Amino acid sequence: MNKEFTVIIEQDEDGIYIASVPELEGCHTQAKTLDELKERADEAIDLYLEVELNLN
Known about the structure:
Elements: E1 8-11, E2 17-20, E3 28-31, H1 34-55
Antiparallel strand pairs: 1-2, 2-3
């Protein structure tokens, strides 16, 4: 099953990109490039959902 999530991307004062997923409380990651950030955001979402599945 594929789900879609909103990912909010911001850039801090040092140029680091930060991704947050509002639908998944506490699901955040960061990276130096947008390509790396996309990979990390996908991984963070997968891990978040895996943990949620195992807790319930």
